[in-house]
What we know:
By secondary structure, this protein is an alpha+beta fold. 30% of the residues lie in helices and 37% in strands. The longest helix is centred in the first third of the chain and has 48 residues, at 100-147.
Amino acid sequence: MxxxxxxxxxxxxxxxxxxxxxxxxxxxxxxPVDLATVTQGPMEVTINxxxxxxxxxxxxxxxxxxxxxxxxxxxxxxPVTAEKTVVAIVQPASSGLLDxxxxxxxxxxxxxxxxxxxxxxxxxxxxxxxxxxxxxxYDRTQALVKSGVASITRLEDDTQRLxxxxxxxxxAQARIEMADGTIARARATLLAPNDADATTEACCVQxxxxxxxxxxxxxxxxxxxxxxxxxxxxxxxxxxxxxxADILSNDAVRLAPGATAYVERxxxxxxxxxxxxxxxxxxxxxxxALGIEEQRVDAYFTLNVPxxxxxxxxxxxxxxxxxxxxxxxxxxxxxxxxxFRQGENWALFVAxxxxxxxxxxxxxxxxxxxxxxxxxxxxxxxxxxxxxxAIKAGVPLTERSEL
Length: 403
């Protein structure tokens, strides 16, 4: 059966239309994705923590006695010199007024002490009389012994009586001294506050600065009562600052002495550097803002900055630290958002000639943005970040345009 030319043309056009419709119906549209390039270069893993500055050697001057701290002779910011600058003055506490009962008891104690002294004086006079008699008996017996009339035994008895009489004199004198002390104590109890102050030669105790530096704080400018050990003034040298950061104990065990830290948010535009000196050996329990108990520990750092920059900082200033836990100079790395779990392993999608290829990778260290790739990728390959469920192996990809 022969077909005309026109019929053959129409058949060809129909076949082409069917083929075109089939291609349009069954082809897969490319999935728009965000791509990132595999890079190789420096990578750091840091521990971030809030911290503050503090004077390395802080001196607290406290009251050595109970009394009244007079108005402070210094104020915060004043320079002081060791053992020369008076930083506080404490006046000893005055004796208090006695109530009626205490007054009567004190007066009775005074009368009792005076009576005991009279008794001791009488005992002393009696002991002196006894001693004089014993001495005369001893002298008489000694003369008789020399003449052969009295025996040695009698002389020994008189010698003993003389020694006992002398001891009675010493005892009576001691009782008089005891009575004098009791009388003085009773009279001191009866002194009025103004009379007690008048008997004190030195009005006040002056406290000198224990070191050169600057007054950091004064507990109170005005006069106030204080007890022994009450803090009065804190002194230090702001040029010798250190940083202290409150970190988790399981972060602290991964840090070694000498670790570098970047100091940010201190108020200046530059990022400062610091060095880890030490970590407290004992952690403490602290409840977080979410109500979770955490074991935290203080880490101390030395600032490594010029004096001109450090001069702008003071005691107790807020800072933010990024402490370097690990650093590599040539780590192969990709964004952390590109990897995902596949069973026990890690995987990601690589864009190969516009098509998604799922690939397992071995990962190393990671920070808050990047992850180290130990194997499975080459530098300059492109990987899909934030892959969605629409992406599978063999799916065509197109890079999402940035608005």
